[in-house]
UniProtKB/TrEMBL annotation:
Protein name: Putative myosin, SH3
Matches recorded under Pfam families: Myosin_N (PF02736)
Organism, scientific name: Lupinus albus
Domain Myosin N-terminal SH3-like per the UniProt entry, residue ranges: 13-64
PROSITE patterns, alphabetized: SH3_LIKE
GO molecular function, one term: actin filament binding
InterPro entries registered for this protein in UniProt: Myosin_S1_N, SH3_Myosin
Keyword terms: ATP-binding, Nucleotide-binding
Keyword Nucleotide-binding: yes
């Protein structure tokens, strides 16, 4: 999965709360468990681990 968004760039690190695309629910919340360059490993609220490639992201997609 790859999200390319146009807005202010932010830093995403381990522990950040994010939304990731999900084929069943459209979007699901989760917490970043690992960052490998632009690839994020996210533990979602439905118990799955998802990989996401973020080339650009915006602050409104992060939970504060």
């Amino acid at each position: 999965m790859c999200l390319s968004l146009q807005s202010a760039l932010v830093s995403i690190s381990v522990g950040s709360h994010v939304w990731v695309e999900d084929p069943t629910y459209a979007w699901v919340g989760g917490e970043v468990s690992k960052v490998n360059g632009e690839e994020l490993h996210v533990r979602t609220t439905n118990g799955k681990t998802r990989n996401a490639l973020f080339t650009r992201h915006e602050s409104s997609w992060l939970e504060k």
